């Protein structure tokens, strides 16, 4: 999304950041990264005044929970850049720097989840009991949801959930209500043999003060699915 914004924004700050924002998913850090990269390319003095006016009076203020301000960050990153140039064979002069070009090298092609295709999304939107079972056809699944408190004043809690696939224990998942330790995906498994499978989740420490909300389940297969045909049934 950062690259999309930079590519199609064509050097325009507003357009570049808006494109990155409209791509969705983490629409705070993506446009921020676009602005930072674009600002580095054109230089601080060439950043449109509209995007700098919020900095006035704040550049010497420390970020929350840190002892560094924006001006400190500017200085530190500038020092890092000069050291990196020198370390890699370049020169730092009084008015300019000389950067030694490096030979472009191709990298190994790596593809994640090769041969794994999302073929279905089963919307659940319900609260799980002590156990939950479902069947699917494919090579994998990802069950999404979260453990929650019934009342906000309750202490944090972690369910222990035994996950069985085709009758065999796959894992004991620890499903915490804590923001730091929670799972967005309650449990998942890929790389199963293509075919029908049965999943069972059993809580070994149920507690009525808490609950697990099931959001949806993504199903994967080794075969691509014709989306148009799937939605025209």
Explain briefly what this protein structure is:
The protein has five helices and ten strands; from the N terminus they run H-H-H-H-E-E-E-E-E-E-E-E-E-E-H.
CATH-level-4 superfamily name of the largest domain: Galactose-binding domain-like
Give the total of beta strands. 10
CATH topology of the largest domain: Jelly Rolls
CATH class categorisation of the largest domain: Mainly Beta
Distance between the termini: 33 Å
The tally of domains stands at: 2
Biggest sheet overview: 4 strands, antiparallel
Looking at the overall shape, the CATH architecture of the largest domain is Sandwich
Order of helices and strands: HHHHEEEEEEEEEEH
Mean pLDDT over the residues: 94
Radius of gyration: 25 Å
Please tell me what the overall shape is.
elongated
Task: For the structure shown, list the relevant keywords.
single chain, 233 residues, alpha+beta, Jelly Rolls, 2 domains, 24% helix, elongated
Q: What do you see in this structure?
A:
24% of the residues lie in helices and 33% in strands. It is α+β, with helices and mostly antiparallel strands and 233 residues long. The protein has two domains: 2-98, no CATH class; 117-231, Galactose-binding domain-like (Jelly Rolls, Sandwich). α1 crosses α3. The two termini are 33 Å apart.
């Amino acid at each position: 999304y950062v690259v999309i914004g930079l590519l199609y924004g064509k050097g325009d700050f507003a357009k570049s950041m808006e494109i990155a924002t409209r791509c969705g998913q983490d629409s705070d850090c993506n446009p921020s990264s676009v602005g930072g990269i674009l600002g580095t390319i054109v230089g601080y003095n060439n950043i449109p005044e509209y995007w700098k006016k919020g900095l006035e009076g704040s550049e010497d203020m420390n970020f929350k929970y840190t002892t560094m301000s924006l001006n400190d960050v500017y200085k530190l990153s500038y020092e890092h850049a000069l050291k990196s140039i020198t370390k890699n064979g370049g020169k730092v002069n009084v008015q300019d720097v000389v950067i030694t070009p490096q030979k472009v090298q191709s990298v190994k092609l790596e593809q994640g989840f090769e041969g794994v295709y999302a073929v279905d999304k089963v919307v659940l939107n319900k609260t799980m009991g002590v156990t939950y079972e479902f069947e699917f056809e494919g090579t994998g699944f990802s069950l999404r949801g979260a453990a929650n408190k019934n009342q906000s004043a309750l202490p944090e809690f972690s369910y222990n959930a035994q996950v069985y696939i085709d009758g065999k224990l796959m894992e004991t998942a620890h499903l915490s209500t804590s923001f730091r330790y929670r799972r967005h995906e309650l449990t998942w498994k890929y790389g199963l043999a293509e075919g029908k499978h049965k999943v069972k989740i059993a809580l070994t420490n149920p507690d009525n003060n808490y609950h697990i909300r099931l959001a949806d389940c993504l199903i994967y297969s080794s075969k691509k699915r014709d989306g148009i045909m799937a939605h025209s049934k």
